[in-house]
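Something for you to look into today, if you have time. Just paste the record in under my message, thanks.
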Amino acid sequence: MDGILIVNKPQWYTSFDVIAKIRKNLGIKKVGHTGTLDPMATGVLVVCIGKATPLSNVLVSEDKVYRTTIKLGLKTDSGDLAGKIYGLDYENDESKETKHLSDVSKEIFEKNLEFINSKNQKFNITQIQIEKILKSFIGKQEQIPPIYSSIKVNGKKLYEYARENKKVDIPARKIEVFDIYDISFNEKDEITYTVHCSKGTYIRALNEDIAKALGTEGTTLKLERIKTGLYSIDEAVDLEEISEEKIIPLEKIFNEKIELSEKDEKNFLNGVSIKTSVKEGIYNTYINGIFIGLSKVEKDNIKRFIV
């Protein structure tokens, strides 16, 4: 079993929960994903299996498309409604240390949703104003990631600083928003839109910035990843449907092909570089029409990647 699975991650599962379930269902240990989704988020999670696990570092660089909803009028420590609202008291639940992260997130989410709905907020903004502000975020920019993220600063993950209530300077990162479309407003306090963006873009942070540009605060109410690279939610498999037959084999992941001569076979299999003039990228590699693995072309050299 070597290849990738396009999984539709359900809400209140961590990305690791998905990996653990696949390992158990398929009886294989070598499994990895190509980009974490928070427990509250749903949608496309590309999972690499067996020999395909080195592709995690390649596929994580792909563009992403998300469908998201901003809840206006509040701010949380995590940037989504599964985090604590600033200014709202929370009971000290001593049992939370033994609870699963998803269970804790769900409990806080439900408490927050009840609270914010009870406020019955309504914002005096128009669809035209909203569209103008959202469109202004298209382009290259710098973004400060949320404190609840797995980015490392000084060798420590940001969420570890957050859990220890320690302050840390978070460096801005360069991202790009390619497009924002299908924008809707519920005439009250929720804005929903679709965004096509580069790797490393945090939608939670983007939603906070959009709310700020609208003159208020905001947090992420819903987040669905609907596309990663070439893979969309339409072809994603629910956890209950995962099987060996659903795995996309190595030979079907990339479209580009390279045919090597028989004299190059030994060098290729031994990891020796082979000169080429083809463009850089990852290629299905064949000898006499038989698939032997994936190669990576860099600096005019073909080199074994996965065999």
